[in-house]
Amino acid sequence: MTAKRWLWASYAVALILLLVLPHAIGVMTRELIGRIFILAVFGMSYDILRGYTGIINLGHAAFFGGGTYIAGIMFTRLGTSASASLLAVALAWAFAVILALVMGQFAFRNTGAGGVLACAMITLAFGEIVRHTAETFRQFTQGADGLTFAVPVIFRDRIGMYYYALLFLVVMTLLLRQFINSPAGRVLQAIRDNEQRARFLGYDVRKYKLLALVTAALAASSAGFMFALLTRFANTDLLSVQNTLNALLFTIVGGTGTLYGAIVGTAFVQLVQSYLLELRGIHEIFARWQIFFGAIYVLVVLYMPLGMVGAFLRIKGSLAYWRTSGGNHTRAGD
Amino acid sequence: MHIFVMLLVNGLAEGALIFLMAAGLSVILGLVGVVNFAHGTMFIWGGYMSIWVYRLTGSFPLALLAALATGLIMGVVFERFFVKPVYGKVTSQILITLGLMIIFTDLVRLLWGPNPIPMVRPPLLDGTWVFGQVIIARYRVFLIAVGLFVAVGINYLINKTRIGMVMRAGIQSPEMVQALGINIKLYFAAVFAGGAGLAALGGALYAPLVGSVWSGMGIDNQILAFIVVILGGMGSFYGSAVGSILIGLTSAFTAWFFPPLTAYSTLLIMVVVLSLKPEGLFGLAVRK
Description:
The structure holds 2 protein chains of 2 kinds. In chain A, helix 3 crosses helix 10 (205-231) and helix 12 packs across helix 14 (307-325). Chain A is built from 14 helices and 2 strands, in the order H-H-H-H-H-H-E-H-H-H-H-E-H-H-H-H. Chain A is mostly helical. Chain A has a single domain (25-303), classed as Orthogonal Bundle (ABC transporter involved in vitamin B12 uptake, BtuC), CATH 1.10.3470. The longest helix of chain B is centred in the N-terminal third of the chain and has 31 residues, at 2-32. A two-stranded antiparallel ribbon of chain B has the order 1-4. Chain B has helices spanning 2-32, 39-57, 60-83, 90-112, 138-160, 162-172, 174-179, 184-210, 217-232, 237-257, 262-276; strands at 117-118, 128-131, 134-137, 212-213. By secondary structure, chain B is mainly α. Chain B has one domain. In chain B, helix 9 (217-232) runs parallel beside helix 11 (262-276). In chain B, a hairpin with a 2-residue loop joins strand 2 and strand 3. Chain B is globular and about 60 Å long. The interface between A and B is large, with 41 and 45 residues.
């Protein structure tokens, strides 16, 4: 009981710190942290797929970038009135659901190890098609130059936007946690652990995978929409494989299958990235931070498959086990 | 009619190029059960290395050899240090090869700059043949010849040689082959490197066709190769050959008749094939 009380106390302290923070730090840091809040939701949406269902979706950026672009295009075409904003949100969600259903229809046909590969390859193709579409319809998206747009008045205050981003992160974390702890979420984890067994138990595996994809797509698209409000800019990089890999890296560094890991991972990766970009003046290799990004990525997959939060939970679990068992036994299978 | 013949040649030439990538992917998938998501990166490196050597020596065959060697070396290194530790773990394989894709694509930008580099066709293969109304670029005929040569060569290797026999046995039961005293791991590595070499060769042949190389060309062609592998049936060599021709012809014909649809037509073909035949044209389920 006391442990739980400590946990709540630390949550409360963290929240208060985050609430006071924007008044204590510089503009650049505030922007960076706001960005981390929103990208963390993108990372968590990927964890629903990779960590809780065992799917690798290489077209996930299409949902995030789709949300950003729909916000941008609607704000430029219809203005920033409340009704236009609501319509934009509705459109972003509709786009996410429809694309997820179409993508999943073809990506989840095969099962087993071949299924994971086929899914990765097919989603990659769908994601690239969305990026290609954005590059083709230049009259709406401005192509590779990028689309700059105005946002509704209530989102124009920078400190206010920081709080909206924080609120968004808290609400989405609670919602996604609710989802993974729901009966459907439990089935998804059963599919991840043993797809065949889940099917033999009578679950329609494809339907559950579709559900996971639609949920993740909605979360990613919402994050993309918030990103639009924060940056007021969209370009086709947001739709690229690189952006999908960003989300993958967030979850892998933080720890897949932990949900909160994505938040830690996003913060870590974003902070490292901004630090490396500051070193640009020393040597031009730092401007190509993607090389470091790829290297971190490969090293984490090879040597730290649990990620930060995963490793932390593992150590905590082992400690608890040692305490209860008096440290006399070794765990079976270890 | 003359347009039909020209599009046929264009389509087959494009198919031959896609085949160089798809064949490697498909054979690796069939034998080793790995999809190399850095396959397109070999393609880029092949393209850049061939231009570099071509400018140094002025010899096109040497440029192609350099590309092939680059692909082989990268294949060996990738396999030995990054893919081997995660054999049997599909998710980790995908993630690691994606990481390599990021690193080596960006290395190209670091070494050669972010802008496209122009490449000319070698004089011997430049120019066209004219038969009445039909105009055929020599280089495209050359590509078709290379594609045919590689297809026949791989087919011979798989079906008529001892190496191919071991490979086919390895697809069936790697443990049994290993128990017979054959180092199947070495075959895995060789197949992986061979596939990488073919992809790099593809990149070197692609550059003179479109007139330049750029760092984004890898992912575009990799996706075409993936579509071919999926619609041909994962791991099927014949499927990748038929799929390449199908995709090559589809994009050549849509590029002529409905230009805006070119990028979508290949995906559409895949969607149609998968709807009718979920396991692909020559689908044999991937066992590993």
